Structures
1.
Amino acid sequence: MSDRNLLEVRDLSVTFATEEGVFQAVDDVDLDVGPGEVLAVVGESGSGKSVTALTLMGLSRGPNASISGSASFEGVDLVSAGERELRRIRGERIAMVFQDPMGSLDPVHRIGDQIVEQIRAHRETPRGEARRHAIELLDAVGIDEAASRADAYPHQFSGGMRQRAMIAMALSLEPSLLIADEPTTALDVTVQAQIVDLLRDLNRSRGLAMLLITHDIGLVAEIADRVAVMYAGRVVEQGTLDEVFYDPQHPYTWGLLGSLTRIDRPRPERLPQIPGAPPSLVDPPQGCHFRPRCPHEFERCPRVPGLEARLPDAPGHLDRCWLDPAEKRERRPVGEGDS
Amino acid sequence: MNGEPLLEVRGLVKHFDEGSGLLGRRRAESVRAVDGVSLTVAPGETLGLVGESGSGKSTLCRAILQLIQPDAGSVCFEGRELVGLSQRRLRPLRPRMQMVFQDPDASLNPRKRVGEIVGTPLELHGIASGAELRREVGELLERVGLSAEHYRRYPHEFSGGQRQRIGIARALATRPKLILADEPVSKLDVSIRAQIVNLMRDLQREMGLAYLFVAHDIGVVRHVSDRIAVMHDGRIVEEGPADLVCEQPREAYTRELLAAVPVPDPREARARRLDARRP
């Protein structure tokens, strides 16, 4: 693994045996997260983004799951690591925040005690010191009167405060990577903005790297350094935030960016839409998975395009589309210079 | 009824008494979920109702449809007062105002075939039966972008976007004049959301429908609405033409709501952050 990446995922595939057949949830995924970097994995439901995140945490293992590929993180391969090593890494080195904080907080224990227990489960810390640390963390994530709020139960917190408490707990062991799966989706829009600001501050002030799983392109634009776009189990495009937004290379990315409502622009008569629906992952189309919905399909598309750099001036900008880059710039309805 | 509103709500109030809580605590005060709301919807128009959770927008919808009894105020639909009408007198009016829900999974009976789901309102209100019912249902399915062959399938055989189309077909079955759509696209993926938004707009044009489009996402609301009403703590705090409300909001709350909407444009987002930091 190269020195520059904190997390390097290569050829990751996850299949589940189901009654209907083999379900290819994650298909040959490559991802990189540098130290202190925010990588957003964006995709719709069924794109494989959440299964990818769960697999990195060792949480998709099971008798009907088959996992291949590698995920190097601080010298450990998360795919082949044993349960004991994974338990150490989870929480200590990689922390996770989910969409629904109520589902991850224990309803019968006080917020502060839950953070104290988390710290003491991994470190030999006297209770009093752990409690002081918990209060500092609650204060750092923007919970007012942290010392008294630490004695509250989860149900006494609003949704936004619960998410802040989850983030405080995630920070408690000073991980180097935070995996956040739809961290703002269940929150009201004004609260969403506050949580985004908090995550950005933590990234900048603590150098905390993040793998952000989301369907929300607006959130991506607000916080990510780099973006991976997933569709039907595969990464179809990966690059810096500006590369993906202003020079998008994959027709699915064009469709995603084009179908957004923009509050800061005159509204179009009709929203551009991607026809059809994502394919079944038990019986996906041969070759490019986006092919049945793509208006630019041609004779090469029944072969799977690799995730490759296709632009001479942007070696880190990867995509899975056979179209010639010059032709893409001509055809695409979004990106730089159009509008 | 030219120039007359299709729906006119005046001073609507609904409060809920908070009885004994889970832990036996008693709270004397009642919560004013809807606190004196007035609004109008003209024939063929879309009024967007935007608000966050707890703003009272869902309670307002249910009070308009008389699914819950308002405590005060009036709801006039096609010139008739609905508040105080018996269920029997409401029944002939129900086909004219229909509802589309957020979650098609929860609102479509999983044991019924699509044909039955869409056809039941036709039968219930005595609009069609037998072969005519079947033909009508086939037409409705095609109108929402499905196929008449889907008649015999079950909801689980469809994707989320297709299930929302089934919900819309069911709402259209009785040829309503007004559709209350409560977060109709918020559970759908972005690429599917655009399809449903466009479909609702096409149907509006073809059938002269009026919508009360309720959502928390002011971006989507602005796209579909002629006018927007912003709801906060049970009240309408601002109302006006959609573009005006979004471009020149008068109320602090509307400005806060707009400022919180993430802009899917990295350069704009960076510029907004710089602006916010400036004193």
2.
Amino acid sequence: MTRSDSNNADHPKSDGPRQLMRFLARLDLDVLIQRLTDDGYQVVGPTVDQGAIVYGDITTSADLPIGWTDLQEAGRYRLQRRDDEACFGYVVGPHSWKKYLFPPVTVVASADRTEVGWQMSTPDESPPRYAFLGVRACELAAMKIQDTVFTGGPFVDPIYQARRNAAFVIAVNCTQAAPTCFCTSMNTGPRCSSGFDLALTEVVDGFLVEVGSNAGSELLQRLPVTEATSEQLARGETARQQAADQITKRMDTDGIQSLLMDNLRHPQWQDLATRCLSCTNCTMVCPTCFCSSVSEVSDLTGDHIDRERSWDSCFNIDFSYMTGGPTRNSIASRYRQWLTHKLSTWHDQFGTSGCVGCGRCITWCPVGIDLTQEVAAIRSSPGLKAGELKRDTSPNEEAAS
Amino acid sequence: MTMKQPNLLKILSETQFADGLPNKHLQSICRAARLLRVPAGQRLFQEGAVEDEIFVISTGCVRLTMNVPGRGEVPFLTAGPGDLIGWSCVIGEGRMTATAVSTEDSNLIALSGSRLRELCYGDADLGFELMKRIAQVLSQRLLSTRLQLLDLFGDAEASS
Amino acid sequence: MNLAAASATANPHNPWLAHTVRIDRIVKETPGVATYELLFEDAAVRDAFAFRPGQFNMLYLPGLGEIAISISGDPNQTGCVPHTIREAGNVTRTLAELSVGSTIGLRGPFGAWWPVDECVGRDVVLVAGGIGLAPLRPVIYHLLSDRERYGRVTLVIGAREPAALLYPSEYDDWIRAGLDVQVTVDRSVGTWHGNIGMVTALLHRLPLPDPPNTLLMTCGPEVMMWYTVQGAMERGLKAESLYVSLERNMNCAIGLCGHCQFGPQFLCKDGPVFRYDKVASIFKVDDL
């Protein structure tokens, strides 16, 4: 049971304007940040860096991408100036919160050579206490999914668990959507409904604030908030609705589990292999991907070894290596592994889809592969075996007709 | 040393080879068969020679070898109870593709290849049933040979 | 029937922590294969350690890495934990250079185990190929420790050649204890008078008085296991009574790194032992 779940038990979900919501003026966003910093949190959130909106340290609200938006499509990401000063007027970038909860590189254990042989130990430093500022609905869903992966099985990862338990989550309701977003198809958004301590909706001059946990409620009492007026509530509702209305991409998930597992020999995988570079971008930006590898890092003496866990990817050719060679020796088999895991076998393993519909993999694929279209291609010709022609394009039939 | 017919019928009917064969076909085949008891080390047929008998093994073990100049007799397979060896007599012209030597005291049912061929031409149904069983034996043998050829236990395999 | 026994020694609080073990004895088995008997340094851990047949440990050579090795000893014995290991890569080759008294790390036991409890009152066939006999040996010890509870128990062993047969000095003990042991090699050498051919050929002619009630466990190269399972079903054994032990790249052994996936299964926690019908639909999919 995750921390946010247990906190949510004491607070009803927000269900729209009828709920008693608070309003935090734009100028007072810095009070929120300061309170969190004073409470010992390291506030992290969206910032502009390297031509993208990425997660970094937030000292004041000026660090946020004020007045920026993102233009996203398959294989393309650009920033563009807005004509307003919105703090959260964009969707999601190449980073996800997994960079903090499941760090890209971390020591999981160590070994020291002593007179009585090798002695192993595990790190026991206190974990960093992060306050995540600006978590989107799809990202809340992704965190819930990774909670199941890292803490819901027979073995719990103590590194993830410690960071997750210490994290304070301030969600932000999306007020717009990118052409790559399809959270509605995956039932993960765009509205934030649970899994946060506080949730903000940006309106003119400030933010509607919703409480999602005891910790959120406690912090709220120390913020200069007012009761939201009906006009502010209406604006908030309009803004949230705009996000939902702007979603155009859809993925039909009906029967998707068996659709993919019944089509493991479909020619679409070979077709994908002519486009996919096996570059691993999709797995790096995906907020639920969790593959990793542990390697040995020795100091100069060779008497102290750190076991370092780093992000890995099923697209890496060595990922499936066994003596004799990798078992997934082709791009087709590796792409198939990724997609069938994400959309199908994830259900068998963790009880939900592994995809939250954030669209990052579509944007950050250098050749613009869109998994929603790949699924649609298989759905339109199920049961086809590699090497077979589709029935209605058989040249013999055309000649005969 | 030949045994009496009824004993032969019973022994043949109990082999895996004859499994499901109708009684009338069993009796026809028995007319072309004799029971053989061989000691260990008995050569049943010679590679390259034209022979006329195929053998169904009832009990015991027979080793098959091929001669490779410089390496001598190279054993590649052993056949046990229920197995059929010497199929070249029925399928081809009777030129054997291996040498067969028993490795222990064995009871065999020896069948005349030429007489079996006569029976098959005379009775298409019997012919089909016999050929079907020989085909099954050969397909099993082929699978086994392929698996041996793949050298699955060779160095490329990972440790458990 | 499953699954992973997170024993006290797997340290549920931190599953990344390895215990120190000392090499107590090394038994050279066949060329390139040796059995390492490991002893936990911590007496409490040594006494608490328990495993089921078919489970594996992650053996750790600091600076080189970890390898997944099936436990090949008697699950009813405490003290030393034997692992039969074949030299195949960096870690195993370095291990082969260690001597008695050296220390390494151990995490475990992990994985789903062979269905020994389901064998009670039934005929059992064990088909082992090459090093695959090592993860099955704990089953043999377990069944023989209480022989009357089981029906006919047959062990079919295949190896590349006579010198590669594993644990040959134990075969007579096993036969005396009530096991039917049948041995075959791919290629014979010199004075070998036994069977030559694949285990599938032996399985094909095995006397099976009660196929629908017979349970089969097999471990060896995947191709061998596939044809063993097919052959078993042709003889009338049911798919739900057949068990295989699979192998994939193993990294964390605790279901968190993703390496060992085979379809929906994590080999480290859903396997490595699988009931055949659970993996039948994906077994023969190329490069899965």
